[in-house]
Amino acid sequence: MARSEPRGRAAQLDATDPLRALRARFVLDDTVYLDGNSLGALPRDVPERLAEVVAREWGALRIRSWTEAGWWTAPERVGEAIAPLVGAAPGQVVVGDSTSVNLFKALVGAVRMADEERDEILVDAATFPTDGYIAASAARLTGRTLRPVTVPEIPAAAGPRTAAALVNHVDYRTGELFDLPAVTEALHAAGALAVWDLCHSAGALPVELDAAGVDLAVGCTYKYLNGGPGSPAFLYLRAEHQARFDSPLPGWNSHADPFAMDPSYAPADGPVRGRVGTPEILSLLALDAALGVWEGVDLRAVRAKSLALTDFFLACLERYVPGALARPVTPEEHARRGSQVSVHCENAAEVHALLVSRGVVGDFRPRNLLRFGFTPLYTTFADAERAAWELGRALDPAGEEAR
Ligand SMILES: *Cc1c(COP(=O)(O)O)cnc(C)c1O
């Protein structure tokens, strides 16, 4: 195989990567794992911490752990660990429930803050299905009309009728990154609230929620934040809106005095107002331990490596994959690229299965889109090259000579 030239380049890039030491903090093997945008790899510190939580906090302390092990306040504490990763000052992030549930809280909460005559909700037309379903339900519940538009259309679409918009920071299919500050500013200029879905940006690139004036945001923790399967999502409630946030799911955990067992509801102050019921302690504390890998990590370095990885992968695709057989759909422009590269090809499901059997794990989305997620904390340039090479071999088995 004629792999020597770019392979030398991969080795050089890996050797000079300032984040290379972080890979050792994850449990990995010799498969090329490019699906951290769906389920992040396991950080090494998690199993031991989780075993301790089970044996000591649950097994021995039992009910006492709600206070003595800090279980009760864990949703806020873990929120504070996530806050700096999304550009949020303390006191605005809480963790609990799924992304879907938090999207519901955030969008209905936003619409309830808007004036009555604002009768329309905008939603990113290409959004992840759950976001679209929830936006439709939120519209019905609040008596508004849902209007799907593309993200670039939002500035023109937002107007005096717009209550709020639910927008994805990165498109989960194409990997396109949208201009969060500009779209937020356009929504505010129209008097509307901006609700952002950060599922594919939190932990992948710098997000500046406070600086951009974002109103509410929701993000997933089991993708680039490596919290583990089903780890609870986070909710950002901008400080200035907290007193007006009227949760559509007021539970006893968001009550000002939960243990008073008061039959009437009085919301707590602060991000606690975004809680609902008993937190999912085991997955929440797994996430807490997983977040340890971010200590001292500069998100600008993460972004720089992410772009270097995706640039290199795109170059390797050009080298190894005949252009007629596969076409990247992720924008070339850095300002419009998230941390994945999506490739359009025929029979993507079969190609994906073949790649997995050869040790390259990405994923695919209908129709005919292969997704390769680059998680800068543990993906190597050698991974990027091997994935492109195997894709070339899968699509064009006869072209071995050329490679
Ligand atoms: C991953 C993802 C979700 C997942 O929602 P869950 O409630 O955790 O299943 C939702 N929205 C987007 C945009 C996602 O990428």
What topology does this entry show?
Layout: H1 4-15, E1 32-33, H2 46-61, H3 65-68, H4 74-82, E2 93-95, H5 99-113, E3 120-124, H6 129-142, E4 145-149, H7 154-157, E5 162-168, H8 180-189, E6 193-197, H9 209-212, E7 216-219, E8 234-237, H10 281-290, H11 299-320, E9 326-328, E10 340-345, H12 348-357, E11 360-361, E12 363-365, E13 369-373, H13 381-395
Parallel strand pairs: 1-11, 3-4, 3-5, 5-6, 6-7
Antiparallel strand pairs: 2-8, 7-8, 9-10, 10-13, 12-13
Helix pairs in contact: 1-13, 2-10, 4-10, 5-6, 11-13
The structure holds pyridoxal-5'-phosphate.
Residues 98-100, 128, 130-131, 168, 172, 197, 199-200, 220 line the site of pyridoxal-5'-phosphate (PLP).
Write up what this structure looks like.
By secondary structure, the chain is α/β, with parallel strands linked by helices. The chain has two domains: about 10-45 and about 300-395, Aspartate Aminotransferase, domain 1, CATH 3.90.1150; about 70-295, Aspartate Aminotransferase, domain 2 (3-Layer(aba) Sandwich), CATH 3.40.640. It contains 13 helices and 13 strands. It has helices at about 5-15, 45-60, 65-70, 75-80, 100-115, 130-140, 155, 180-190, 210, 280-290, 300-320, 350-355, 380-395, and strands at about 30-35, 95, 120-125, 145-150, 160-170, 195, 215-220, 235, 325-330, 340-345, 360, 365, 370-375. Strands 2-8-7-6-5-3-4 form a seven-stranded mixed β-sheet, sandwiched between helices. The chain has a four-stranded antiparallel β-sheet with strand order 9-10-13-12, with helices on one face. The longest helix is centred in the last third of the chain and has 22 residues, at about 300-320. The chain is globular, with a radius of gyration of 22 Å. The mean pLDDT is about 95. The structure holds pyridoxal-5'-phosphate.
